Structure formats: structure tokens, C-alpha cells
Amino acid sequence: MTKHFNTYSEPNRIAEAVEALAELTEPQRPFTRLVFSPEFSRARQWLQERFEAAGLECQIDAGGSLIGTRKAPAASESPGKIIIGSHVDTVPAGGRFDGIAGVVAGLEAIHFLNAQRIDLPFDLEIVDFLGEELNVWGTSCLGSRHMAGLLTDDILDRVDQDGRRLGDEIERIGGTGKPASGPRPDAQSILACLELHIEQSDRLETDQIDIGIVTDIPGISRYSITVTGSAGHSGTTRMEGRRDALVTASDIIMTAREIARSIAAQDNRHFVATIGRIEVYPNGAATVPGEVKMILDLRASNEHSRDMFMEQLHAASLETSRRESCDVGIERISEASVAHMDDALRQRLARSADHLGLSHINLSSGAGHDMAHMSRIAPSAMIFIPCKGGLSHCPEELTTPDAIARGSAVLIRTLLDMAG
Amino acid sequence: MTKHFNTYSEPNRIAEAVEALAELTEPQRPFTRLVFSPEFSRARQWLQERFEAAGLECQIDAGGSLIGTRKAPAASESPGKIIIGSHVDTVPAGGRFDGIAGVVAGLEAIHFLNAQRIDLPFDLEIVDFLGEELNVWGTSCLGSRHMAGLLTDDILDRVDQDGRRLGDEIERIGGTGKPASGPRPDAQSILACLELHIEQSDRLETDQIDIGIVTDIPGISRYSITVTGSAGHSGTTRMEGRRDALVTASDIIMTAREIARSIAAQDNRHFVATIGRIEVYPNGAATVPGEVKMILDLRASNEHSRDMFMEQLHAASLETSRRESCDVGIERISEASVAHMDDALRQRLARSADHLGLSHINLSSGAGHDMAHMSRIAPSAMIFIPCKGGLSHCPEELTTPDAIARGSAVLIRTLLDMAG
Asked: B43-101: per-residue pLDDT in tens?
């Protein structure tokens, strides 16, 4: 007979934790807990208290991630490590579950092991990876990039519009603020990295499946696009002489969408392109815009589609730039190739779901995750749980405590399985 | 023999005043002195000290304008009034002369009259009209609108994104914050309102003319455009299902520009349309934009052109709204009809320029000015002085102390002329 998921994980305790974190938001803009913000620091403090109450040994690592460790018994010689983690930062006006569900699920594993007085033959780390969401410095997954040795000086030296240097912000919240010289020194001893996350799409909900086992995480590339025209008085600058940076940017936004649509239609695999962030200077109602800065976010599970998109966008932008007499600069901010999840770990997750009587399917991730970076240095895998309508990165984002408890039970079963 | 303009006005003193005000700016963004900002309050304080040092009696009127009065001698029975004014607020990242030149020129008149110990048979008011530039509440010319009885509850009750109510801000800097019940009570006794301003176009510079005498100020209409789509995760929201508010807004921005170009080409008179301000929500790089708010600024010296533009824009927006599955709302924020400058005053200004040996031509204004509103309640006129390349509302805005002194001399000659 299969055990019920509630044997492993308590939906009520999960609901309380999600609710507590949901309250740590910018008051005017739920649910907003940007990395390095006061709300983020409060969430970190709350989480560390929870970690300590559950007996975890806490530290902030060099890359600013919060790690709570449940040590293997002293008897174990050079025990391996298993990481369960996700993140508590959010996008602006985001949701209550993206990232949060994974951290709360990790904490459930600790509660279960403590209650059952189970000693695992490996260290178990519950991790709040720093700044998984894309920030104003144009880089996501700060914590996992650092652990994987991918956070470079070039990224850390970036300065936001208020003059804040990224490296200094990491230092301020307890990291070193220095680049990683390589993967974390104990990378060889990491047996598995596991992450639970809401699906952020509607496949599991539509097909009424409990668990998605992620096969791969798409390559994400980000580019900054800067359009430079001439600012001028809106009343006295004639239509014909204008070099309007916002009109030019608008042309690029529409063109990018058209190219993306056409590539997505040709490509059976996942391809999306988004311009979600735009800053206009001087942004005065009576001034012809002089400069526009935008961030282009590309997700492709196919490098050919990505390269074809950028080639077409470059060509179209050159054309637009000439026609509108504005300069257009496109620069790559970051690029990550497709990350494949570990086959053996995926099989273990599937066996755990079977053991619990939970339905499961394989899925490709649409979004990026910390596991994309962790997979470069250690066996990594992810499970998805259903969320309502696939909505995410918005306040309507919704999953249930039961769905999180089911996923958490799969993680716990997998830990027990790996303990032998 | 004509007198030299330097007999009336001192370029060095003008340069010092312009420089002093230029330093009262947001440090990171010259030249920025937004109405109600700390920099604006410091400029007001500086100006009041200068007014008082020149013997003017200072007050902030109900609409928040700073008025320095040089009284007619007590002997004069119910003397009339002449107003010389402009404004010291700026647009974001604006210039050193737009508005400032006119206030400084007014102060020059006081210095001349004091030095020459001339008593005028009318009160002379030097006015810093409150908030001439378009602000975040979507309304320009706060001070002159109030004097003309045009600042309504509807406008004063507007709240910005930080929750600041416009009326409260006016009260905070010394006005009543209440709507005008009608034109200022002594409107009947105003003999003339005069304003000196940089041209903000390049006609005077190109033709090497000293003074432009303004014939009319265009009608300015402003509309808020709100586009509502659906926010979503940039990685998991497929291209096909998107309701991207920024793509939709981009279509409207480009369409508005196309319609404006075609109307400007048909219309020999002045027509321009600008979308200079845009706010995107949530403006996260990894989120499909859910909402966009923009301000459309229209300037027409012809109401038919304005109406035709809006008709075409409404039709095109409806089409875009359907195609992109986003809601598009267009609402009028403000509208002012074309304002004609007073013929008799214009003739006096021309005679004064002739007297000083300064070249002059008639010009239509491209921009809006406080005199557009003052002309509804009293005889009003403006003179323009040349500015480099016609650039304005940008840091490159440039005129010379001599050009301001020439214009100031024309105003002073006109005062002496009206004194008889």
C-alpha cells in the first residue's frame, strides 16, 4: 500500500509559511520582495529564524545565499551533501509561490526528519538561493551562478541607476561581493541538487497530473537595447525633424514580437522573446524622448532558433535605426545554454512519486531556474507542481498547500531512497 | 538716436542670476527643478530674497504663484497693474533658460526703475507663475490657470502615483490649494501681462532677428492613454496567448506618429503630437507587461487638425485593441483653445523694439505659455528671443545674456511708453 503524502508533509504548516512570507511585501505593490530590498532582508531574517528553530546550522555563503545545514551524524566519514533549494525573492508585483514553494518544501523535509528522528548519511542543505529573479543589474540566479563559479567581476561591477554596485549589495547582505574563483570547493561531494517549483504553465492542471519531472531548462539570453535620439520640446520640435527614441523603440518592440511569433510557429520546441522592462529619458510629457533603454529576454530550447532570432532582429534594427535617424545598440548581458536535468535523479523522483501513488509526467521547463546553473557542477533535478491557469509572475499566481505537500513528499521519499 | 539696450539692462547681472538658478537642480540630472521639489523651493527662496532686495513686496497668491510688487506712489488713485512674469520650474532634464529668462528679465525692469528712481503710475508685478511645465498630474500652467479662474476641483483633486494630491502640494508651498472661484478679483485693473521667453525654435537665430513678437499660442490638448493586457511570466507565457500591453502601446505610439506626420504635412499651420511619458507595469525584465500608461500631448493652431487627429487615433486604437486583445482607454486630461495675443500691446512692443534699434518679426508660438491663460482675463503679449538651434527642454538649451538684455530692454521701454 502506498503511503499518503500527508505522512511526510503538513499542508497547514506549509500554508502558514507561505502566508507569513506573503506579508513581507512592498505594501503598495503585492507581492513584491525584490532582492536586497528591506522586505527581502525581513524575509531572510524570518527564514533564518525558522531554519534555526528546526535545528539547522545557518550561514550566508560567499554568493549571498542563505544555507541551513542538517549535518550527518559525526560518525559518518566525509559525508556527501544533498541540496534542496529555491528562492524567496520575487519579481515586481509577482506572486506568493514562485520560489517560495520550493524553500518551504525543503523546510518540510527537515520537519519530517526531525519528527521521525531520522539521521541521513549525508549533510542536507536547505538553500535560499540569492536573487533568482532578474534584477535591475540584468542578471538572475545570483546565488546559484556564484556556487557554479559563473558570477564574474564583469557582472558584479554593474551599477544600477541609483549608483548601487551589484557586488556591494551582495556584500551588504552577508556575501563576500567577490567573484567566484570556480565552483564551490565541495562541489564534488554534492550528491544531488533538488528543487520544487510551481509549473508556471497549465499542462499539469489541465491534465490533472500531480507532479512534473523536469527534463531540461531552456537557454536564457538577455540583451540590453539602447536607442539614442534627440530630446526636444514637444511643442516646438516639428514632426519632420524629430529623432524620437520612443517611436524607434516602439518599432523595435513590435518587430521583435513579429520575429518571435514567426520563429515560435516554425519551432515545435519552446521559443519566447519579451521586452518587459523599458526606461525612457527624460520621460516628461512635454518632451520628445531622447533615449530609451530596454531589456530583451529570450528563452529557447534550441540554439538555432535563438541565433536566427538575433540575426533577424539585428538586421531589422539597423533598418529602423536608419529610417528613424536614431542610434540603436544591442548588447548581450547574459547567456546560458540549455541545461539538462540528471537522468538518474529523474528516475529516482519518478519512483518516489510512484511510491506515493502520485501521477507524474516529464516536462520541459519554460522558465529559468537555479537548477540550470547547479546542473553545471552537480547532478540536479526539479519537480513541478500544478498552478492555477499557469499564471505566474503576477499576484494571481496560485497553487495549494496540498500540491506543495505532494511535491515535498516526493522530495522526502527521494532523500530516504538515497539514504538507502 | 536710439538708445543702446545696455542702458536698460545689464547682461552681467542677468548671467549671474541665470547661473545661480542653474545650480538649484537635482544634482544627478541637470537641469531639473520640478514644481514642488526641494530644488524648486530653494529657487523660490532665492527669488524671494532677490525680489525683497530690490524692494518688492512679496506674496504667494491663492494659486501658489510668487508675486513681487513695486507699488505705484501712494498719490495714484486706484492705479492699474502691469504684470511681467514667467516661471522658474523646469521639465525633467531641461534647460537653464526656459521660463528663467522671463523672470530674470522682469527683475531687470525693477533694477532699472530703481536705479533711475522712476515712479510708474501703475503697480508693477514680477511673477513666478507656479508650475508652468507639465507635471505628473497632467496639468501645466498651474499659476496662470488659477489667476484666470481655470484651475478646477477636478484638477486639484488629482493624485500622483505616490498619493500626493495636487491641491495639497499647492497648499504646502503657500497657496490655498482651493480652486479659483473666478478670475483674480482685480483682473479688471490689469493693463497688461507681458512675458519674455526663448523662442524654442530656430527662426530668429536663422534669420538673425533680435525679437519675435508672438501673435498666438497654440491650443494644447493632453490625453491619458491606458493600455491593459495581462502580465505573465516571460518564459512560460507562449507568444500566441499573450496580451502584451507594451506591444499594444508600441503600436499606438507608432500609429500616433504616422497620423501626426500626415496631418502636419497637410496643415500649413503648426501641428505636433508627442507621447513623451510612458509608465509600464510591472516593468520587470522577466514579465510580460500587463499595463501601460502614457500621456499624449497635442499642439494645434487649428482645431480641425486636432479633431481629425483624435478621430483617426480613436479608430486606429480600436483596431489595435481588438487585434492585440488589450483594452485601450483614451481620456482627455486638459484642453485649451488657441490664444491670441493683444494687438495693441503687440504694436507697443514693436515700437519699443524700433526705438531700441532691434530687429523684430511676428511669430506664432509652438509651445504653450502662461500668457495663453492670462490672455483670457487681460491684454497679454509675449516676446521671444533667439536660442541656439531652437533646442529647448534639454540641457543643451542656450541663449545669451545679451539676448535676454535686449528682450528686457524692450519690456522696459514698453513700461515707460505705457507710463506716458
From this structure: 999 999 999 999 999 999 999 999 999 999 887 677 899 999 999 999 999 999 999 99
Q: Among B300, B335, B370, where does a domain finish? A: B335
Using an 8 Å CB-CB cutoff, list chain B residues near A236.
199-201, 366-367, 390, 392
* Å between A80 CA and nearest CA of chain B: 34
The C-alpha of A139 sits at a distance from chain B's nearest C-alpha, in angstroms, of 10
Distance between CA atoms of A83 and A191, rounded to whole angstroms? 8
Angle at alpha carbon of residue B292, lines to A242 and B153, rounded to 5°: 95
Distance CA A211, CA A201 (A): 13
Neighbours of B71 (CB within 10 A): 16
Q: Examine the fold and report which residue of B335, B353, B385 is the final residue of a domain before the chain moves on.
A: B335
Tell if the pTM clears 0.90, that is, is over it. Answer: no
The reply to whether A122 and A71 lie within a common domain is: yes
**Cα B79 from Cα B111, distance rounded (Å):** 21
Q: Which residues contact A58 (CB under 8 A, 6 or more apart)?
A: A48, A51, A52, A66, A67, A68, A69
Look up residue B315 and give its amino acid.
Answer: A
| Per-residue pLDDT tens digits for A184-225 | 999 999 999 999 999 998 999 999 999 999 999 998 999 999
Say yes or no for a CB contact (<8 Å) between A91 and B247. Answer: no
Distance from the B218 Cα atom to the nearest Cα atom in chain A, whole angstroms: 9
Cross-chain residue pair B249–A250, CB shorter than 8 Å: yes
| Positive or negative: CA dihedral B91, B97, B101, B103 | positive
Domain that holds residue B330: 220-335
Which of A152, A87, A61 minimizes the C-alpha distance to A334?
A152
